[in-house]
Structures are given as C-alpha cells and as structure tokens.
Amino acid sequence: MSITNNRPQPVYPCSQQDLYTIVETGWNSFIEHLPSFEAYSTLYSATTASDQLSALASARSLPDEEAREEVHKTFRVQLTTLSETCITKWSDMMSYVRDGFPENEYENKRLAAGYSYYASAEKRDWDGVKGLMQSGLEFANGNTAELTAGGMPATFIADFEAAKVAFEKKHQDFLQAEENAKVQTDKKIDANNALSNALTKMFTDGKKIFRNNAAIREKFTFDRVWDLVKGNGGGNGSVPTNVIEIGAYLFDENTLDPVVGGVFRITNPPEGGVVEATSGGDGIAELKIEGYAPNATVTVEFEISADGYETVNGSGEMESGEFYSIEVPMNPAAVA
User: Which residues are CB-neighbours of 96 under 8 A, at least 6 positions away?
Assistant: First the structure.
C-alpha cells in the first residue's frame, strides 16, 4: 500500500501573525453585524464567532517555530560536545596503538579501529561519530593486551564505552525531537488552515450580504483587512498620490455568488493600453493604476467580462491617492 499524503502547507497568503489578527478582526466584524448574518443563514449565530475565536486562541497557544525548534537545537549543541569527547577518546586510543604495536602495523591497526570514519566525525556527521566509536570499541575489546602494553589505563575501555553510549542516547533524543518538531509544525499549520478556511467562507457570505454597501463589505474582504492590519488601508495618504487603487467585487446578480475568473479592465489608463486584473475565488479583482498626476481628479473607464456573463462597461470619477471599492452585478448571458 502506497502512502500519498503530503505534509500540510499553509493556505493563507500572509504571515501567521497577520492571519491571527485578520481572523480576530474579521470575526469581531461578524459580531458587529451579527443580525445581518443570522438573517442570511441559520448556520450563523453568536456561537459561530465564539467558536472561531476559541479556535484562534487554541491555535495561538500551539508552539511557534522558535519554541518547536528549541529542544532540537539544544540537543544539537549537546551532541556537538559529546562528539568532541568521543573523538578525543578515539584519538587517545591511537596513542596506545602507536606504543603497543610495531611501527609498521600502525596504519593497518588505525584503519581497523575505524579511522575511515574520522574525517566525517570531525565534520559533525553523527553517523560518522557512531561508526568511529563502534569500530573503536570493537578494536579495543579485541586488542586489550596490546593496548594495555601501549599505556592504556585500566578504566579506558569503560570510559570509551560510556562516551559512546552517551552520544548514541543523545543522538536518539535529537532525532526524536526533530520528528516531534515536524508533528507540532503540521498541527500548527492544520489549525491555522482551519481558521483561514472558516474565515474565507464567512467573508464570502459577508460580501454577498453587503454587496450594496462598499464600506461594510470591505470588512469582509481579506486583502482589505490585511492592508488594515499592515497599516496600509486605502485612503488617508496610504495610497501614493499618483496611484488609484480599485477593488471590484464581481457577483452573479441572480445567485449572488462571486464570479470567479472575471476580467476587470481599465480602458483609459494614463499611459495608454489596458490595465487588467482577474477575480479570484472571492470574486475580487484588485487593480493599482499608476502614472496619474498627484491628487488629480480623473474619469476612469472600465470594462468587465466573464465567461457566461454579459460584458459590463462603466466609468467613474476618481481621485489619485485613493482606494475605491465597487460592486459589479453580472447578468448571465442569454443562451442562444
């Protein structure tokens, strides 16, 4: 049986901390407009918000990356110290090999004691350290008389084995901590994704409910709330004075569902040509049009098209340096 499950990946486009603030802000906006949501669907209630805010608190309480990695990183430091002890013990044994065997046998004895692992062990290859110590211990036990004649203390083999065992135990702790960190990371991402998915669903309905009220609708538009969180909310000087930003919400006039894949085009941008954006899963298409005179009042002409819908043409007077939110009901095209 093959295993095809992959580790989870974040579904949200922002940082984790931004997500938490967006979720908290979004559900507080939901509470503020709760009667409208309750009137829209019986699936919404005050409990909906409290459950999501509780889920937010739970997700926040799960260890962050630094906390998840702390044990693992600590064990790495400890492994480094233990590996140095192991390498020192093995090097000491080479002195006993030198003095306990004929000079012309030294190289062969050193290889038999695990010298092929020495270079990788010095480079903090943990398996290299394990190989060095395993071969070294076997050699010491098999050549005790010669090593003792070469000056090896009576307690050396026991000390050598103790260093080997301590390193191997810490290595297992290190590997287990690494696996635990992965499990905790996946748990954190799963919790964050659940928050994001629930918020996206509520935001989609919020945009439908307030499709005719741009100011309130922005409270349920992820990118606009994200801008607010980052301190980049539209208007009030946050948009460059030579730029006009437009967020267009495209929705089916009959079903009120967002229109995905609709193309929002500005047909008279300041530099000529066409500026366009495509609506995503939330029905939002956002444009940033540059090149206007600072704080100029201009007429912006646009065209919106989508497969299966009639094309919409329109225009509006706008001022550079501002963000505008517009809603565009799309009429299904007549079937020939």
Answer: 147, 148, 150, 151, 152, 156
